[in-house]
Structure formats: structure tokens, C-alpha cells
Design a protein that fits this description.
Structural class: alpha/beta
Largest sheet: 6 strands, mixed
Strand order of the largest sheet: 7-4-6-5-9-8
Bound molecules: adenosine monophosphate, magnesium ion
Helix content: 10-25%
Shape: elongated
Number of strands: 28
Number of helices: 8
Length: 410
Amino acid sequence: MRSLEQAQRDVLAAVPTLPMLELPVWDALGLGLASPVVAPHDVPPFTNSAMDGYAVLGADVEEAPVTLRLLEDVPAGHVAHQAVSSGAAIKIMTGAPMPEGADTVVKVEDTEPLPDGVRIMAATPTGTAVRPAGGDLAAGDPVFAAGERLTPPHLAVLASLGVSPRVHRRPKVAMLSTGDEVLPPETGNLGPGQIRDTNRPLLAAMLDELGVEVVDLGIVGDDADVLRNTLEWGAGEADMVLTSGGVSMGEYDLVKIILRELGTIDFWKVAMQPAKPFAFGHIEGTPLLGLPGNPVSVMVAFEQFARPALLQMMGCRAVFRAQAEARAAGAWRTDPAKTVFARVVTEVEDGVTLVRSSGGQSSNVLSALARADAFAVIPVGTGRVQAGDPITIELFRSPEARTASEVLDG
Ligand code: AMP
Ligand code: MG
């Protein structure tokens, strides 16, 4: 059996980073930066007012009240025609460039308008409400490193700099389900021995959340010719192929047979639970991950192998989810020969994160997976967890946890 870490190392070593290209900020969410970003100019690009008010000389407003002569109005997007000198003020809007000479903004609430001037009602220290050019980023500042994954605020920063990021191409992932018993999720009445396909909806949604393009190859029955054709087509079309089912020990595990024939595929027994049987290799140069059939195993294998591999393809430096330390709320028994991914619910009590089983831990029990917000990662050699023991968790979602009435009607 291969350790989880060895299996992850082998997958990551065999998955390329996709080609680079420059993309508009609109299209770059979730991708990894292919090269560092350096600020081409100051942000803000000019010194401007942080408030609606009056641009003045700080020396004129050290004491109040004081009356100043009004020179003109500067709305945002416009530039003052005159400089501010002692005894004068220019009315200014938030974001408008500071007029020459002015070094202080008195906010409008602290003033009273006069026919040709303004009365300053509050003493205002020099420099108040002025946002200096380059106060956020100065020209030449390093902004983001290569390998950073672009989040919404990253994209906003790039927009402020006018930079279209150089990123790695977004992967396309082809997915299919296998098995004669598997029918589309839309199926109304199931015949004897039939089940609905849970794995494609699960995979499609996880790929979607990751920001990867999905090529749906559908359900392929246990038919060698159809499977061969579908896999060949999918490998040509996509940057990665994900299959589910057909990689364990059963006689009908055709995926195994066809993969052997089509590409360079290895069948692994990984020392993990769930998701022990796992296939990995290439068909015509396209990496293929053969996930197990049981849906919980699909998610665990996706999380531990496919997701990191896809993030690597996307050029992201960090490819594994964050882990956190928590405590077991109750006792647990696990297989000491495997890394066990237990589906758990987390709850913070007195500042300590406690984890509890979210329900049935068999690899077919989807309801407990849907209730869970994290995997407890129980390392090889553990076997027994006692209440209060430290336990490592991987949060796979941070669900909204507070209802409007809890928050607002409290
Ligand atoms: P297999 O490895 O193909 O024998 O599949 C293992 C188990 O997972 C069997 O109980 C299958 O019926 C089930 N399974 C396989 N594919 C799917 C799927 N797409 N949706 C739901 N269950 C599946
Ligand atoms: Mg099967």
C-alpha cells in the first residue's frame, strides 16, 4: 500500500502547470499569478480628499472659528484651477485631487457656508482628511507574488493598477460516471438494482466552486467500447479526466481494464479511508484520476488528489487546504494503518473548536457528508482518539451559520 503523502507526491509530480496568458481581471478569478505584480504607478494616483469639505492651509485652521474666502468648487474627476493660499479655501468632494497649496481638508460638517466664503467651526490639525498619492501602493512596490491565487480583492487591486494579470490557463476537466446500475439524477422511478448518479453532480459542483471548466461525459455503462471511446474523446478535449467507479476489485471494473489498454495508468491502494482504490496515469498525455465509486470516497479523493492537482495546473503556490487544530468531543476508533478522513461537524465552545462525527462514516453515506463542515484528518498510527485529544481538521466549507433573526433581532 502507498502512503497518502506518497500518492499525493506522485500525482503532483505528474501534473503540469498549464500555459500562461494575460487575462482581463474579469476572467481571472481563482487562477494563480504566473508572474509577480509590481505597481506601475502610485495608488491613489494623486493626493486627494478623503471627505466632502474644504481644502485649506492647515496653518489657517489651527484655531476656530475662522472665516475663509471661497475660490471655487472641485467635484471628483475635476481639477482645481487655482492654488489655495492663506485665507482662502476651495470646496472639495471626496476623491477630488487636492488643489495646489492646500494640505488639509475640513469636513463639511465642521463648516458653515457664507455668501462668498466659508466659516470653519472646528480647529482641524494639518493633514486631516488628505489621502496622499501612493498611500496605498507606491510606484515600484511589489504587490503580489507569482503563485498567489486571485481572489475578488486581488482583482480589485489589479484593476486599480490597470494591470491585466499574467496567469495560467483555466483547466478544463472531463468527468464521467461508470456503472450499469447508475442512472441520471433526474430519473423518476428507479428499477430494481438501480441508483441515481450522485458523483457527477458532486464533482461538477466541486469543480465549479474551484473555478474549473467542466466537460460532462455523462454516465457510461459497463461497456468496454463505449468507455474506450468516451475516455479517448474526453482526454483529447480536456486537461484532466476524472472517472468514478470501476477501479476496485470487482469483475466488472472495466475502467481498470480499459485504462490499462489505453494509457499509462497505475492502480493504487492508498493507505487512506475512505478512497483506498485509486487509479492515476495518462491517456494521450492527459492526466486521468480514477476515483472510487462510492460518493464519499469521490469527495475525499477529489479533495486530496484532484483539487491540489488542479490548483497546481492553475499555477497556485498553495494547493492544499488550510488545516486547523481542534479537539475531539468524543472517543473514536480508527484504522491505525490508514490516514482516516472522518466527516465531522465543528463547533466552538469556550474558544476551543470541538469536532463531532457528523453521522455514519461508511463511504456510501452521503447524508453525513452533507452535514459535515470539515474532515478530521486522523494520521496513520492513531487507532484510538479519546475525548479531548487534539485532532487536525480540514475545513472544506465555511457555511453561513447565523440566521438574520439571530444576528439582527438579538
Ligand atoms: P464500483 O467501484 O464501480 O464497484 O462502485 C462502488 C460503489 O459505488 C457501488 O456501490 C456503486 O454502485 C457506487 N457508485 C458508483 N458510481 C456511482 C455514482 N456515479 N453515483 C452513485 N453511486 C455510485
Ligand atoms: Mg461500478
